[in-house]
């Protein structure tokens, strides 16, 4: 697994009464892309520790430090907000995630609600600082005082009035966002790459709005976070044999071929072993994070052959139809399989 680092907190910023930004001193050798996340180890009296993922609100093109923004929403978030101060040290896994723009020069439509602004803010700052793209941001909150990065967004609009449009939706004034309302707000920007992040209900509504605009799934990016059942900080061997009844074929091992980082690999794939474990056991530096089918960091594409996924909490049906799979959850069905990483 990627090796965690113990990062020192250099500042804690109170964004709203319910949210804090934790600013970490960046370790040497780490890099990230706008829209990615960090996974933090949080102490627990019951289990020793739990792991929680939080999006980076900093931009690799603007900020020297790493910053995640945390809104109170459960044990992990509450612990961080209540206990972490400047000088604290936190175990953190390297940046991961695929909620990233293909180009900083392309125009984008961003839809966020609540703390879903976090990865969206990283994308917006990066596009404005290092690209030429224009940005339309639709941002929903319960009320004005809950708007995270309110002052920073106003400052960005003032500096880039021709490139950044921010539309606020306040439930206290307008009620809950509806698909027809979001559809009409998004309509002028329907030709853009779209990014959606926020609570589940908001994302379902936003996805419905984008579908009604007939925006292709390939241009729609959804960021979902679920609680991790297994702790990636536990230093146990992660290769896990699958019960025979969960496999779909008998007989000998399958074969998988792939190209990654300029190297071609052809590997034996035991039918009771997940694809990611096969790759890591053979020294292939395949990307991954949660290992639970919940973050899409290990996503790859099936070019030939067929697999079975044991768990999937993040890929949409359109992704599956395009051959996207999660390496951490995939078992072979056919004897020969070819995959690719994009």
Automatic annotation (TrEMBL):
Keywords: 2Fe-2S, FAD, Flavoprotein, Iron, Iron-sulfur, Metal-binding, Monooxygenase, Oxidoreductase
InterPro entries referenced in this protein's UniProt entry, alphabetically: 2Fe-2S_ferredoxin-like_sf, 2Fe-2S_ferredoxin-type, 2Fe2S_fd_BS, Beta-grasp_dom_sf, Cbr1-like_FAD-bd_dom, FAD-bd_FR_type, Flavoprot_Pyr_Nucl_cyt_Rdtase, FNR_nucleotide-bd
GO molecular function: 2 iron, 2 sulfur cluster binding; flavin adenine dinucleotide binding; metal ion binding; monooxygenase activity
CDD domains, per database record: fer2, PA_degradation_oxidoreductase_like
UniProt keyword annotation of Iron-sulfur present: yes
Swiss-Prot/TrEMBL cofactor(s): FAD
Keyword Oxidoreductase applies: yes
Start and end residues of each FAD-binding FR-type domain: 2-102
Domain 2Fe-2S ferredoxin-type: 254-342
PROSITE patterns: 2FE2S_FER_1, 2FE2S_FER_2, FAD_FR
Top-level taxon: Bacteria
Any Pfam family matching the protein: NAD_binding_1
Protein name, as recorded: 3-ketosteroid 9alpha-monooxygenase subunit B
């Amino acid at each position: 697994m990627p090796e965690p680092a113990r990062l020192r907190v250099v500042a804690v910023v109170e964004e709203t009464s319910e949210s804090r930004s934790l600013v970490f001193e960046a370790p040497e050798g780490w890099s990230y892309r706008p829209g990615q996340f960090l996974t933090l180890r949080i102490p627990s009296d019951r289990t020793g520790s739990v792991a929680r993922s939080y999006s980076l609100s900093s931009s690799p093109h603007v900020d020297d430090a790493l910053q995640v923004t945390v809104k109170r929403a459960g044990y992990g978030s509450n612990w961080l907000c209540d206990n972490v101060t400047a000088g604290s040290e936190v175990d953190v896994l390297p940046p991961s995630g695929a909620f990233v723009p293909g180009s900083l020069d392309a125009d984008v439509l961003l839809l966020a609600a609540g703390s879903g602004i976090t990865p969206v803010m990283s994308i917006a700052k990066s596009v404005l600082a290092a690209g030429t793209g224009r940005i339309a941001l639709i941002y929903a909150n319960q009320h004005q005082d809950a708007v995270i990065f309110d002052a920073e967004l106003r400052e960005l609009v003032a500096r880039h009035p021709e490139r950044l449009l921010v539309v606020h939706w306040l439930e206290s004034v307008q009620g809950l966002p509806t698909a027809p309302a979001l559809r009409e707000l998004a309509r002028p920007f329907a030709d853009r790459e779209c990014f959606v992040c926020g609570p589940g209900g908001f994302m379902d509504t936003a996805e419905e709005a984008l579908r009604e605009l007939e925006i292709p799934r390939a241009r729609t990016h959804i960021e979902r976070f679920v609680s991790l059942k297994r702790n990636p900080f536990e230093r146990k061997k992660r290769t896990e044999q699958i019960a025979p009844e969960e496999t779909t074929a008998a007989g000998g091992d399958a074969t998988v071929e792939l190209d990654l980082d300029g190297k071609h690999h052809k590997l034996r794939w035991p039918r009771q072993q997940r694809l990611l474990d096969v790759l890591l056991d053979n020294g292939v530096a395949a990307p991954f994070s949660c290992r639970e089918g919940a973050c899409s960091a290990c996503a790859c594409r099936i070019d030939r052959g067929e697999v079975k996924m044991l768990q999937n909490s993040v890929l949409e049906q359109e992704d599956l139809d395009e051959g996207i799979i999660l390496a951490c959850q995939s078992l072979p069905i056919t004897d020969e399989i070819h995959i690719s990483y994009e």
